[in-house]
Design goal:
- The protein is mostly beta strands and 196 residues long.
- The protein contains one helix and 15 strands.
- The strands form four sheets. The chain has an eight-stranded mixed beta sheet with strand order 7-6-9-5-12-11-14-15, covered by helices on one side.
- Strand 11 (142-148) and strand 12 form a beta hairpin.
Length: 196
């Protein structure tokens, strides 16, 4: 049989999981039938896309998230903590459990933990971890937000459809009622007793 005459085209792409210089994928994919004269595009990893963090320290969490999204950082978790800084302002960014600073270059697919101040009043409260069981009738990804009144106290994006529960650390006194939102819609009420 005659050998197939094929044209190979190489393209470099960013990829966070495939080592630089290695093949990410081909088009057509492996095991697909091809005819003579066809072009095969081979996509070669040039490693993760790295981008410098902008300074969002001191900004509100909403503004910080919008800035990060504008820089193509899509994965983030809000963590609230008692602090002498102004309530609802960003006091720290962390990646892989390490503090990162404005100007640091990180993979745009990294999960950025945005540490937000709960204000000095929260310091007198009691910390309590609650396991919130996730709904089976919502397919990830979706945003899970817990609010006390109109104030968000916990935000996280749920990506894993095998995750059964989300451990949540809350700060308060006595008995508190929270609203649990999924994709901006009220899902349930959550009552937490900080006295036990």
């Amino acid at each position: 049989s005659q050998p197939l005459k094929l044209e190979l085209v190489f393209e470099e792409v960013f990829d966070s999981t495939v080592e630089s210089g290695h093949v990410v994928r081909t088009d057509p994919e492996a095991d697909m039938e091809i005819g003579t004269g066809e072009t095969i595009t081979v996509y070669i990893s040039k490693g993760p896309e790295m981008k410098a963090l902008k300074n969002v320290i001191g900004m509100s969490a909403d503004i910080a998230i919008n800035i990060l999204k504008g820089e193509n950082f899509q994965n983030y978790i809000i963590q609230r903590t008692a602090s002498d800084k102004a309530k609802d302002t960003v006091i720290e960014l962390r990646v892989d459990d390490k503090k990162v600073s404005p100007g640091d270059k990180i993979d745009i697919n990294s999960v950025i933990i945005i540490v937000v101040s709960d204000g000095p009043d929260a310091q007198a409260g009691v910390k309590k971890q609650v396991d919130l069981y996730l709904p089976e009738d919502f397919a990830p990804p979706y945003m899970l937000v817990i609010k006390q009144g109109d104030v968000p106290v916990y935000e996280v994006q749920i990506d894993n459809d095998e995750q059964e529960k989300e451990p949540i650390e809350l700060v308060g006194n006595g008995k508190q009622i929270y609203d649990v939102y999924i994709n901006n819609n009220v899902y349930m009420k959550l009552e937490v007793d900080f006295t036990t």
